[in-house]
Amino acid sequence: MRVAIADRDPEVIAFLKGVVEHMGHRAAVFHSGMNLLTQLQRDTFDLLILSWNLPDRSCTDLLRWTADNLTVPPAIMVITTGTDAADMAKALHAGADDCLPIPENRDMLEARIAALLRRSAHRVVQPLHPQQFGRYCFDRQSESLSFDGNPIVLTSKEFALALLFFQNAQRALSRAYILDAVWHSVAGLPSRTLDMHVSRIRSKLRLRPENGYALLTLFGFGYRLERFER
Fold this sequence. Notes:
By secondary structure, the chain is an alpha/beta fold. The chain has helices at residues 10-22, 33-40, 59-69, 85-94, 106-119, 156-167, 175-183, 193-205, and strands spanning 2-6, 26-30, 47-51, 75-80, 98-101, 131-133, 136-139, 144-147, 150-152, 173-174, 213-218, 222-227.
């Protein structure tokens, strides 16, 4: 999973980054609220860890911006340097999912991060039994897909990419996020690889509104699978 960390204190950043990476997630570091806000307009994260005391933008402003501008906001944890209950309450009222003083216990912080990601609405458990999305049925065990019971032949990467879109329907996914999730950001991967796979998925799955789903290109950002009621 991809985690954004915004704080002005290098020691705090190093601590948080170490915890996130120890858990097996990717960490992106931002030293100001403005830098984070700019990146949120072109990238996707599963979790934001925000300092209550950012140098240029108030934490409450960032929380409100994510709620107002992101279709599916990521889980958000706010970190404070003290135990002021009033500040923690403000963060929670402004939209934070969790708020806590910087913990000295790494195990506790890992547990809170894991709990947030589990509760996050867009986190999808990967069940082994087939998953039905409208007229599409995905079977992870056999990496097979069918439409109205008719099989659709896909490569392993095409199957992984299609499942990622369906499990995150209505959510804008950045190119970086998709490449991380499906290709694990393989060095030297041609820039057109993702676009070619998306084109094949659109064609093979016949992703059109009349079939319940359409895959939209978000220019300069990535893609979003739209769901249509029939």
